[in-house]
Structures are given as C-alpha cells and as structure tokens.
Amino acid sequence: MGVVFKLVKADRGFLALLDEETGELVPKAVRRREDLTDTSSLTISQGIIKRVMDKGTSLLISDALTDERFKKRDSIVSQNIRSCLCVPLKSRNKILGFIHVDTLTTSDSFSKDDLRLLSAIGAQAGIALENARLFEQVQELMFGSIRALVATIEAKAPYWRYHSQRVADIGVLIAKELGLSPEEQKTVELAALLHDVGKIGTPETILHKEGTLTPQQKAVVHSHSSRGANIISNIKGIEDIVQTVRHHHERFDGSGYPNGLKGVSIPLYSRIIALADAYDAMTSIRPYRENIPLAEVISEIKKKAGEQFDPEIVSALLSALSRQGVEVPEQK
After folding, report:
1. Is there a contact between 44 and 14 (Cβ–Cβ < 8 Å)?
2. N or C: which end of the chain has fewer CB within 10 A?
3. Got the DSSP string for 267-289?
4. Is position 199 annotated as part of the catalytic site?
C-alpha cells in the first residue's frame, strides 16, 4: 500500500485477498493518513467491495454520499466516505482480491488517470499473486514426490524411517536460529530430505550389518554422498542442493569425505545438515545400539565443535534447543 499512497492522494487504503478455502476476504494491508487515529476509521464499505468483487470491474466514485448506488449504505454515511477508487486483483479472469483507496473529507479527489493507474497496479499484482500461488502448489507437489521417494529408500531399513524428515526439521531449526531467509530455509529442508538419496545404491547387507564394516564396505557407504549428488545433478535449478548433498559428510577439520573440505570451504547448508544428521543419528535407535541420552548427545556435540562440526552451527543448534526447553549445560 505504500507504493499506492505515493501515486494517489488518499486518506485510507486497503488490500484484501480472497481465501480459496473459505471464500472470505482476508485483509492483508491497511494504510491511512497519520492524523487518522480513530480505529473506527478502518471500516470499509461492503457495498463497494461487493460490487467490485461480483462484477470484477474497477470503480471510480466521485462522491459516495451523493452516489445513488451507495449513498444510503450505513458504512458510507458513518465513515463519511467521499471519493473512492476500488479495483479487483485479477489473473486469467479469476478475482483474487481488491485494492481500495478513499478520502473522508473531499469529493472528486481521484481522476480517470488515477483509476487507470490503480487498475494497472491491480492487474500486475493479481498476476504476481497467481504466479506465487502456482509456485507454491508446484513446490508442494515437488516436496510430496521427494518425500515419497525418500520413504521408499528408508523402507530398506526400518530404523531409517522418517530419518530424513527429522534431519530436515532439525536443519530448518538451525537455519532459523542462524537468521537464514525463508527461501534459504526451504533449500536446507529440501537438501536434508535428499541428503541420503545416494543410499539407494547401497546393498542392504551393508545397511543392516550390525558389526564393524570392512574397509571395502566403508568405501561403499562413503560413496553414497557423491552418488546422491550425481543422481539429482540432472535436475535444473538445484545446484546448491547438489553440492549440499555431495558434501554433507565433510568435517570441519578437513578429515571428512568425499573431498576433505575444511572449515567454511564446506558449503553452509552441508555444515548445517552434517550436524542435524549426526544429532538425529545419536538420538535415534540403531541396530547396534539404543539411542544415546540427550545430555550425552549435547556433550558429544560440544566436544566435536571445531573438529567435526562448525562451532557456529553447534551454537545455533544448542540455542534453538534451549528455546524449546531442552536443558543445555553451559560450556566449560
């Protein structure tokens, strides 16, 4: 609404979107002149809004108090609404909401040029909103497909069930604590869901083995991060995720695999998932052991900061756990 107020001289402005599930209009932005402090001045004319939403056409009202279509409506009289512009937000003939601006003191405040300008803004905003919704639907479909794939892989070993989703949840928790943007948090979530996809090529005899792995078997296990990166490398636009999957077993001191990267040369998302993965592994039951008590897990994570894990990532996880009520002893 800030942009709209810069372009047209209005006392009040409103933007509302139609909830697709309930069919109700939900206010998303409200703007008014600074000297309008009375909360009642936020009431809007339902008659004007209904006409715009029903017909899908823009309205320019020079003086609502004398306009035969609206002058008898209570909201017009009680709010003393004079000039008004109201335009629908549309995309492909689908009405998504509206933008409404008005004045409370003077009539004839808006021109046809103002109407054309606001209508153009409404049209562009409608297209942007529809594209955002379509993107969200595609993203939900993609995440659903990935979860189905991951569930198929994790079905190879019962103790794996929901491991990738838990790693994703922990990874997003860390990402939020680090102040990463919502888009970056989504990337962390997707990379975490895919981090073990390379295990689809690991023999079940190795995955289920309870004893010590032979050097050859260890090499097979260690190859899963590169294999996973190669599997997803043909998907366009996810280069960050490919590199995250490839390097999520690197260690902060450079002793990890596959490339022995060290410190911040390891991708940030890989450093996040490395800790999230280890945290879930330690707190979950494995064929060869029970889950480790949380106090011991925290102690081990602290001990490995700077060696296996990025100390900043460790601090973020411990802070996030503390916020959730987990008792995190002070570092000695």
Report:
1. yes
2. C
3. -HHHHHHHHHHHHHHHHS-BTTB
4. yes
Instruction: For residue 22, give the DSSP letter.
Output: T
Report whether pLDDT(40) > 50: no
Q: Say which CATH superfamily domain 155-323 falls into.
A: Hypothetical protein af1432 (1.10.3210.10)
Look at residues 107, 169, 128 and name the one whose alpha carbon lies nearest to residue 17.
128
Q: Under CATH, what is the fold of the domain 2-131?
A: Beta-Lactamase (3.30.450)
Residue 222 pairs in a beta bridge with none
Question: Binning pLDDT at 50, 70 and 90, where does residue 291 land?
Answer: confident
Q: By C-alpha distance, which of 93, 84, 94, 88 is closest to 120?
A: 88
Comparing C-alpha atoms, which of 137, 169, 64, 150 is closest to residue 107? 64
d(CA 37, CA 17): 25
- Break the chain into its structural domains and give their ranges: 2-131, 155-323
Residue 245's nearest CA partner among 195, 197, 180 is: 195
Q: What is the mean pLDDT of residues 252-276?
A: 97
Torsion angle (degrees, nearest 10) of CA 316, 320, 239, 249 = 70
Any idea which residue has 């900043």 for tokens?
312
Token output for 256: 């990890």
pLDDT above 90 for 138: no
Tens digits of residue pLDDT in 141-168: 778 777 777 777 777 666 677 889 999 9
Rounded CA gap, 99 and 105, in Å? 20
pTM of the model: 0.63
Per the residue annotation, which of 199, 209, 302, 303 is the catalytic one? 199
Rounded to an integer, what distance in angstroms lies between the CA atom of residue 51 and that of residue 23? 16
